[in-house]
Design a protein that fits this description.
single chain, 298 residues, Zinc Finger, Delta Prime, domain 3, 2 domains, five-stranded parallel beta sheet, 14 helices, 51% helix
Length: 298
């Protein structure tokens, strides 16, 4: 992996390359942006450059070889899976970070989804951010900046990541993820991030069923619609499927305004589900209301 293989946020890439090459590296960073747009990938690639002994591209130095082999003793990622971060984990970092580097001239610690730190854990980390060892670099990665203490934010170089442009995301989806085509409504539902595109690739069959439900509202009877919509009766995945249903209805509504009212029906269903109303009844009611909405508007 190298910066040129990470799509989006070119200005941040250029800044990180420039500062690492010129050895103008800050000791603490906060990478902020929507989930799934490559912040962690960027942090890892930056870490590799920070640890590099020769600052060459490509590089075969001992540090880069260790990094590529995923056994670098001066590099550590906490919470790659996005779990709650407890104070004991931060205490371990503060204990290990003061130890001198072994292979490189610096040590790099990435704390992914750092908003998952408890308040106690954040306060514990704050002490290290205030007086870090001169060889240490800490990179915090978050999609929910509002959950990070202001005292931590004030001690970090904050880099705000933008969503990936649609043209780059479309090219990536077709060339790397194997989408045969990426329609405008599908691209819009990616919401500017790779993680969403990958997820939608995994559930293409389900999304096709949801699109068919929307397309058939104007031509099929309600019984047929409910039979076609079996995917929406999957309680475990409904939080993923309702946004797509709404997005497809909205997109169709741009050309056929009778579908625009369906967006409100999906929203109402979501609110009922949050109030723990009967699940199947909520889906039944939503589909019936969408069907009636389209028929009345024709």
């Amino acid at each position: 992996m190298s910066f040129e293989h990470i799509i989006g946020n070119r200005k941040i890439q250029e800044y990180l390359i420039k500062t690492s090459t010129a050895n103008l590296i800050s000791q603490s960073y906060l990478f902020v942006g929507t989930e799934g747009i490559g912040k962690l990938l960027m942090a890892k690639e930056f870490a590799k450059k920070v640890l590099c002994l020769k600052k060459e591209e490509p590089c075969e130095c001992k540090s880069c070889k260790c990094f590529e082999g995923q056994n670098h003793p001066d590099f550590y990622v906490l919470n790659e899976s996005g779990d709650t971060i407890k104070i004991d984990q931060i205490r371990e970092i503060t204990r290990k970070i003061i130890e001198p580097p072994i292979v490189a001239n610096r040590k790099v610690y990435i704390i992914n989804d750092c908003e998952e730190m408890t308040v106690e854990a954040q306060n514990c980390l704050l002490k290290t951010l205030e007086e870090p060892p001169e060889f240490a670099v800490i990179i915090l990665v978050t999609s929910r900046e509002n959950l990070i203490l202001n005292t931590i934010k004030s001690r970090c170089m904050m880099l705000k990541f933008k969503n990936i442009p649609n043209d780059e995301l479309k090219k990536y989806a077709m060339e790397k993820l194997g989408f045969e085509q990426v329609t405008e409504d599908l691209l819009e539902s990616f919401n500017g991030n790779i993680k969403e595109a990958i997820f939608q690739k995994q559930i293409q069959d389900e999304l096709s069923q949801i699109r068919r439900v929307v397309d058939d509202l104007a031509t099929e009877d309600i019984t047929t619609i409910m039979n076609e919509a079996k995917v929406l009766y999957n309680k475990d995945d409904i939080d993923d499927y309702l946004p797509y249903l709404s997005a497809f209805a909205f997109r169709k509504g741009l050309d056929h305004k009778e579908y625009l009212g369906c967006v409100e029906k999906v929203k109402n269903c979501n609110e009922r589900l949050k109030r723990n109303c009967n699940f199947d009844m909520c889906i039944d009611t939503m589909l019936l209301e969408m069907w009636e909405c389209v028929r009345k508007g024709m």
